[in-house]
Amino acid sequence: MAEAQNAPKNLTVQGGTPAAGSTTAGAIAVAAESTVATRMSAPPSFDVADFPVPHGREEEWRFTPLARLRGLHDGTAVAGGTMKAQIDAPEGVTVESVERGDARIGKAGTPVDRIAAQAFSSFTKATVVTVPKETVLTEPVRVSLHGEGGTTFGHTVFDVQAFAEAVIVIDHTGDGVRAANVDFLVGDGAKLTVVSVQDWDDTAVHCSQHNTLIGRDATFKSIVVTFGGDLVRLHPRISYAGPGGEAELLGLYFTDADQHQEHRLLVTHDAPHCKSHVVYKGALQGEGAHAVWIGDVLIEKSAEGTDTYEMNRNLVLTDGARVDSVPNLEIETGEIVGAGHASATGRFDDEQLFYLQARGIPADEARRLVVRGFFAELVQQIGVDDIEERLLAKIETELKASV
């Protein structure tokens, strides 16, 4: 599964050229027109009225099957469902239910599409989870969200204050239609790891915008895992509040027949000497399986010394599956350390399968070993034993259905 190289149509450079040694690559299973990181049909806004109802021709909606959004995009979805929420927080962590006017709400970012704005306009109260300054947690903060049908909206803020260290696990299960905004405030010098698991029932719909504001010399690591749902559309966004911030965005998805899983990332380098590293991997099987990955990186003129790289790899296990993978770079300064992107989509590596079968491993088991190895690098970086074991078991279950 070789990476495709030399796709400058997905690279925009202003005010200079990429640093020596950087690469530009963009390969997709279904070719897409050139885009830039900032192209949207409307500017960010908290007011749903500022966004036109999408029709599917807009750049940010052209891959999404609007009819399967159950009215989240056009205002016909009405809150009335049930979402059971449980937060297990270690000692020292505070959990609050706050009114819409709380200063922490929206600080990390503004809704960038109609669904995110609808979610912001529709929640009753927001939840704020605070890890106090200089607190180092030895156990994760665990947030369990279990849908029991109907439509729900939500807004959650995780405020990890200066020099604190924390791991947050957000686990989505059950059924329903869910639209939510999740904000992560990472204070100066803080270290935050977030694991977001989408293990919905096959009929669920989930759309969410994840906004992260990274403070000076802070470190943020995101691991997004998507298995379930009829339609899942996630929009992680990163920005920097000061120099020296680092972001690592990892993702794993397994798309089955008739599932639509869409991950749309935007990293905005708006402060000097910051880093970002993105790796998303997916496997697809079954007729009508559709995965979409959009990786946008914007390096603003003020972001000198930026070092960024993004990669998406997809493994197609059966006929009838489709991948759209679009990495984009927009660079407004030539004073950077490095910037590159790559995308690769393909089937099993015949040489790997031959090697394993030549050593007496049956073909079906050889296929499973190749896929497990494909995902192992990301699973091992989660750092939460029970979550890693659960995901490996889930991958094994998915693989049994594909062979």
UniProtKB/TrEMBL annotation:
Transmembrane segments: none annotated. Residues 1-22 are annotated as: Disordered. It comes from the Bacteria. GO terms for biological process: iron-sulfur cluster assembly. Pfam families: SUFBD_core. Residues 147-374 form the SUF system FeS cluster assembly SufBD core domain. Belongs to the iron-sulfur cluster assembly SufBD family. This is SUF system FeS cluster assembly SufBD core domain-containing protein. It comes from Streptomyces roseus. The lineage of its organism: Bacteria, Bacillati, Actinomycetota, Actinomycetes, Kitasatosporales.
